[in-house]
Amino acid sequence: MEHITSRKNEVIRSSAALRKAAERRKQKAFLCEGARLCADAAQSGLNLHSLFYTKRAAQKYTSYLQKVQLSVKGTTYLIEPSVAELLADTQNSQEIFCVCDIPQAAQETKEHFLELPPEGMCLALEQIQDPANLGTILRTAEALGISKVLLCGECCDPFSPKALRSGMGAAFRLVLVHIASLPQSIPALRRVGWHTFAAVPAHNAGKITKVDFSVPSVMAVGNEGNGLLAETISACDQCVTIPMLGRAESLNVSASAAILMWEMMRKRSDENG
Amino acid sequence: MEHITSRKNEVIRSSAALRKAAERRKQKAFLCEGARLCADAAQSGLNLHSLFYTKRAAQKYTSYLQKVQLSVKGTTYLIEPSVAELLADTQNSQEIFCVCDIPQAAQETKEHFLELPPEGMCLALEQIQDPANLGTILRTAEALGISKVLLCGECCDPFSPKALRSGMGAAFRLVLVHIASLPQSIPALRRVGWHTFAAVPAHNAGKITKVDFSVPSVMAVGNEGNGLLAETISACDQCVTIPMLGRAESLNVSASAAILMWEMMRKRSDENG
To answer: Is the pTM for the entire model greater than 0.90?
Structure first.
């Protein structure tokens, strides 16, 4: 174990740089903060190549830390609280951090995006801006049994500190495929037999309760403010909507994604008895 | 119209104080920030007793401001950007604010909590801590047609700046009833014929898909970290759960509340054809 006391230490600098998306892409790694999230990364089989914690964190989170230490392949560093500040993204940091490789499943590229996950369902997120929304959606996807999510266009990064926190580690285990343009990819999805749904707030779209999800299905969900791109909507096989009964114009994207995924999975379970 | 240039102005001080929960309770008023949210407060029939905006906000949000100005019963203030900073809760403030009375429906007390809303459904939130979660849940409730929400125990304030932002004005229109103790109130709800459900993550609880919501129903949803109080769970008629198909242990409270409310309303719509 090494001891880092200087805020100018090179390992700390390069690890703190992972708080930025560009650096995560460059290093193909991310910084994970918090006792539970680090333990979750370890248990999810990620490649952990450094671990950092302060003395007080070691005392407070002993059992979590033991789980993490078993999995670290690189170096473990004891750091001072003033050094922990440089890595922390939260105000009351737990002062435990690890640097992990971005999981292979989240680096899948174009060739893999057509592969059907076992549950026959897939979510496509287009230009989601808010990392807390993205994290919440990934957490919901995992809980409901959806294992593959397409991240399309300028979607925020699922490995940012904020997205990881609200995702509770879902990004460690899901297959996340980055796609530059969803509308340009839809024809290929359709050719291999995927049925593509565009979730829209329009009253004249098919109600989500009436949709047949027995075929392999992709549900496309759009940006917080603007929804799906017009090109995406017209490229999809079918528009679907959540019937709104109240006065509110729309749902938060993480609430609507939860209801859409729930309906996909509920109907499939119903069909399977 | 008055012009405020001093950061020490008494009206500004007392309005800025409304960013704190204790002061909102004392004044029975709240501070609303943003062009759209202020217009929404005006259109929802709230009592607006002051309006503040900067010159640049007046130029940028003319149409929103016109809607608000029609409804202001008190004074309109032109303020300097340095003064707007004192009222702002966001980093890039739109520099439009109004002070509104907390709506009557949100001040309902014990005597009213037994009243059945027209849709026959009600949500009871116990000790929700995060204002963004609370706002999102209220927005979802309104969108799905649930008009009454019980806020139980130490629930965060629906009129805090953050809760208002994520709620998109839902708190302006819902009936929000504050209850000191949900477990102590459940017997009264049951006596007048409400069926009380406790949402729990336990696998052995009844699946939400199998539940009969044809009777007047209250769905109790608990705190982010700990769920419902044990006393609440044992006081309810029935425990229900969202079947989890994946590896995640639980859903975010706003995602699970969305699915629970969706199932309540979906089944009721099914029954009504």
So the answer is: yes
